[in-house]
Amino acid sequence: MRKYCLLYLVLFFAACGPINTFEKNVAIPGQEWHTSFKPVITFDITDTSSLYNVYVVLRHRNAYRYNNIWIRGTVQQPGDTATRSRQYELKLADDAAGWLGRGMDDIFEHRILIQERTRFTRPGQYRFVLEHTMRNDPLEYVMNVGLRIEKTP
Predict the structure, then answer these.
(1) What are the structural domains, with CATH classification, of the chain?
(2) With 0-12 CB in 10 A as exposed, 13-18 as middle and 19+ as buried, what is 17?
């Protein structure tokens, strides 16, 4: 019995380490993403010596009409007033395989890598803005959009 108690204590304290993953998703009102709706996601970075993978998370319904989505990501570093933007084409489907994300019923979720092994050079709060740059406004059947940041091993 003592062996099991010791094992549970070791596992408990090992699980209390620093969090290595951040994810935040924002619901798209009415599942119609208007170009005027630009979700803002803030996150704190304390470890500037580590590398991180950054993903866009997108959830949509099966009725979404396109194989891709164009998204602009704008980041503001701690202490800066200037921002940097980058355009991303996120592939959601192909003709042979259909939707590339995970699906349940008529809802599909994609985690698409946009920056691999990147380093955040300043500690503090980062501000990330996501906006779609597709021709259609509103962009129908998009449910959520978000950001996932994982510390690389």
Answers:
(1) 20-151 (2.60.120)
(2) exposed
* Residue 147 CB neighbour total at 10 angstroms: 22
Two tokens, residue 121: 């050079």
Prediction pTM value: 0.82
Contact residues for 150 (Cβ-Cβ < 8 A; gap 6+): 20, 21, 52, 53, 55
pLDDT, tens digit, 9 for 90 and up, residues 68-112: 999 999 999 998 999 999 999 999 998 887 888 898 889 999 999
